[in-house]
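chain below, 71 aa
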Amino acid sequence: MKTHKVVVCVAASVVALSFLTVGCDREVSKSTSTSVSRDGTVKSQEKIVTQSSDGTVTKTLESKTTEPNNQ
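prediction:
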C-alpha cells in the first residue's frame, strides 16, 4: 500500500510539472507607430514579436489605414 501512494505521488508530480513547462507564449517586443497625412488619413502599424516555450520566434505585423469622412 505504501508503494502505491509513492507511485501516485510521483505520477501527480510528473503531470503537474508537464503543465508548468508547457507555458504560454512570451511577448518579446511590441511597437506601435501612427502617422497622419495632409489629407487626414491615419496610418497605424503594430509590430509584435513573441517567443513560444519551445523557442520558436513569431513576428506579427498589423497595419490599419483610416480615411477621413469628407462630406
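The chain has a mean pLDDT of 81. Residues 24-71 form one domain.
thats it, cya
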